[in-house]
From TrEMBL:
Binds 1 zinc ion per subunit. Consists of three domains; the N-terminal catalytic domain, the editing domain and the C-terminal C-Ala domain. The editing domain removes incorrectly charged amino acids, while the C-Ala domain, along with tRNA(Ala), serves as a bridge to cooperatively bring together the editing and aminoacylation centers thus stimulating deacylation of misacylated tRNAs. The chain holds residues 1 to 486 of 876 of the full protein. GO terms for biological process: alanyl-tRNA aminoacylation. This is Alanine--tRNA ligase. The lineage of its organism: Bacteria, Pseudomonadati, Bacteroidota, Flavobacteriia, Flavobacteriales. Its cofactor is Zn(2+). Its EC number is 6.1.1.7. It is an enzyme of class 6 (ligase). One of its GO terms (molecular function) is aminoacyl-tRNA deacylase activity. Signal peptide: none annotated. It comes from Aquimarina amphilecti.
Length: 486
């Protein structure tokens, strides 16, 4: 089944259950000072849960563009290393605002997965909240009893507050959740590690696909819980992971969401993607790099299509860093010294613009912006090489100063791992501990200055001097973010 059909079937299924299909909210959030990027489907409905607004229908469904690169939900370091965490991904969701509750949410999830999509019941596991003594919260017996009717009890796993109690932040609606996991291991793979706990932390082939959150409490300012007058359902299913389960593959990157991009990267760079290699293998880095580039291209393209260009502040800076990360992986592991990532936009656009037309209407802008960024960062990398060369020449012995390496990184944006690679090629080392200490000092400084975390809601103060005020519709071609000084 093609990914496009998988997405449509999800929406059609919930439409048949009287949900209204709504569009994805932008991935880059413009009007909420507490949140920079959408990191879950429910973000755009926050006010309904809080009782501050009324939805047009108390049952909604959509696919939401999400980005998890900062705050509580930061998967950046996982991307490319594993095969199921992305920076940008789609979260399929269905919502009940004070309407149906656990029974329907559970039964419909099961019906969709096993009857509509036809996933083998024997490879599905579910988890239920086990309770939390410190909060005086009981286990979610109601969900357990509902699952028990459809799933054998040895496939119901109890989960703690970390995994199975969802909170929006320090205050607000919250409640227990049930996750659905899919076990993609072959019989041989299972035999290798018998008796292993089947939760997604333990085996890369046992992956969480869907989270059903039952909002039945409100966390008050004094941190106590009270029952909500209305109960809500908030679900989120990883679209790319669902495609993996339905297309009979063992990696999100082997689904048709990613393969056209990967083939294109191979063609342009002459590199070969080895889906079975591990990041630690001698040539595994090439495949990591290809995954990173395919992933980051999506994050950056969707962000530019939303009107957020790379810049030196706030959300724009996050996007610039993601793009530079991709460029660096190409430079270091694929040995590509010319701009090439922009060439992938065409493929992405033709593949995804059915569901996200902004990728088509903004295509030229996306291409131009990425190309320009590639050009300028590749120049930085070139300059860094010259500077590094001078540092090496000025070094007595074979160990380069950690402060110098940090200076290259901090002032010129020259990445540590690239420095390390180049130095080792020339038989040099550097003072890693000194570099790390300097880096930590810098992190502490910037964290203190710019970031306060509050549960799922990340409070970021991007740059007090700038504020987003809307799109520029007058420029014709592009929806460019305009900022005004405040
Ligand atoms: P995980 O434990 O795998 O990190 P999660 O518990 O953080 O997932 P939720 O916040 O419950 O994820 O989000 C709902 C669903 O979104 C998950 O069940 C998963 O299918 C999907 N998802 C979450 N993070 C990612 C990601 N970084 N890339 C792709 N899909 C994701
Ligand atoms: Mg996670
Ligand atoms: Mg999880
Ligand atoms: Mg989860």
């Amino acid at each position: 089944m093609k990914s496009q059909d998988i997405r449509n079937q999800f929406l059609a299924f919930f439409e048949s259950k009287k949900h209204s299909i709504v569009p994805s909210a932008p991935m880059v959030i413009k009007d909420d000072p507490t949140l920079m990027f959408t990191n879950a489907g429910m973000n755009q409905f926050k006010e309904y849960f809080l009782g501050n607004g009324i939805p047009k229908n108390n049952r909604l469904t959509d696919t939401q563009k999400c980005l998890r690169v900062s705050g509580k939900h930061n998967d950046l370091e996982e991307v490319g290393m594993d095969t199921y965490h992305h920076t940008m991904f789609e979260m399929l969701g269905n919502w009940s605002f004070g309407d149906y509750f656990k029974k329907e949410a559970i039964e419909w999830a099961w019906e969709l997965l096993t009857e509509v999509y036809g996933i083998d019941k024997n490879i599905l596991y579910v988890s239920v909240f086990e309770g939390a003594k410190d909060e005086n919260l009981e286990m979610d017996q109601e969900a357990y009893d509902l699952w028990k009717k459809i799933v054998p009890e040895d496939r119901i796993i109890m989960g703690n507050k970390n995994d199975n109690f969802w909170e929006m932040g320090d205050q607000g609606p919250c409640g227990p959740c049930s996750e659905i996991h899919v076990d993609l291991r072959s019989e041989e793979e299972k035999a290798k590690i018998p008796g292993r706990d089947l939760v997604n932390q333990d085996d890369p082939l046992v992956v969480e696909i869907w989270n059903l959150v039952f909002m039945q409490f409100n966390r008050k300012a004094d941190s106590s819980l009270e029952k909500l007058p209305a109960q809500h359902v908030d679900t989120g299913m990883g679209f790319e992971r669902l495609c993996m389960a339905l297309q009979g593959v063992k990696s999100n990157y082997d689904t048709d969401v990613f393969t056209p991009l990967i083939r294109e990267i191979e063609t342009i760079t002459n590199a070969t993607y080895d889906k079975d290699s591990l990041p630690t293998d001698e040539n595994g880095k090439v495949s990591v790099a290809i995954r990173v580039i395919a992933d980051h291209l999506r994050a950056v393209s969707f962000s530019i299509a939303d009107g957020q260009l790379p810049s030196n502040t706030g959300a724009g800076y996050v996007i610039r860093r993601i793009l530079r990360r991709a460029i660096r992986y190409g430079f270091t592991f694929l040995n590509i010294k010319e701009p090439f990532i922009y060439k992938l936009v065409d493929t992405l656009s033709s593949q995804m613009s059915g569901a996200f037309p902004e990728l088509k209407s903004q295509k030229n802008l996306i291409i131009n912006v990425i190309k320009e960024e590639e050009n300028s960062f590749l120049r930085t990398l070139d300059q860094g090489l010259v500077l590094l060369d001078n540092v090496v020449k000025g070094t007595k012995g074979k160990v380069v100063s950690g402060e110098k390496v940090f200076e290259l990184y901090d002032t010129f944006g020259f990445p540590e791992d690239l420095t390390a690679l180049i130095l080792s090629e020339q038989g040099y080392e550097y003072e890693e501990e000194v570099f790390k200490t300097e880096l930590q000092k810098q992190k502490d400084r910037s964290r203190a200055a710019s970031e306060v975390k509050a549960g799922d809601w990340e409070i970021l103060i991007p740059n007090a001097e700038e504020e987003f005020i809307g799109y520029d519709h007058t420029s014709g071609e592009a929806r460019i973010s305009r900022y005004r000084k405040v």
